[in-house]
Amino acid sequence: MIVRQGENDLAFAKRVVGFADNADPHTTAVTWNGLQTLFVDYQTTEEYPERPLVALQQQPDGYRTIQVTLGEHEGGTPEITALGLVNADHDPAKELTVILAWPVSHYDVSGTLYEVRIFDAPKPGQKALTQLKVSQKFDATCDCGWRDGTTKRFRFKTIRAVKAELKRLGY
């Protein structure tokens, strides 16, 4: 496991990443392609807060920090609704799927905007993950209702749904 000086996941993440006390942080510990990995997302303190996601990954001499993605402020601060490991290319390593969700509340429309981002596994020395082109197959879609009674639903709100679509696409 990652050297934590007796800290729990959240205390360790705060010490390493350095987010503010009111950052609404979340941690998820997994084994990713054989390496202990702690995913950390938190809210920034700017006027229009964003939600960075980083991975703290076990290394022989401690850990490394890898930038995963940034949930941009799009009329609201996003939430990361799901993280999962999938096969989204044709190598044996698992890729990371991140599902982001933004609140939508306007005069004419309300609901949630969803986006699926799929990232290749990190390579040695890599400091930021590379988003795979297959992410475009999932698009960003509003799961919303409009005042005129029109509704639209987003099909890929879960890792299970993303995995099923990747399988259908031949991965």
Shape: flat
Q: Mean of residue pLDDT?
A: 94
Number of contiguous helices: 2
Strand-pairing-aware structural class:
mainly beta
Order of helices and strands: HEEEEEEEEEH
Helix content: 10-25%
Taking strands numbered 1, 2, ... along the chain, how are they ordered across the largest sheet? Answer: 5-6-7-8-9
Describe the main β-sheet briefly.
5 strands, antiparallel
Distance between the termini: 30 Å
Low-confidence stretches: none
Describe this protein's structure.
A hairpin with a 4-residue loop joins strand 8 and strand 9. This protein has a five-stranded antiparallel β-sheet with strand order 5-6-7-8-9. A four-stranded antiparallel β-sheet has the order 1-2-3-4, covered by helices on one side. The two termini are 30 Å apart. The radius of gyration is 17 Å and the shape is flat. It has two helices and nine strands. The longest helix is centred in the C-terminal third of the chain and has 10 residues. With 171 residues, the protein is mostly beta strands.
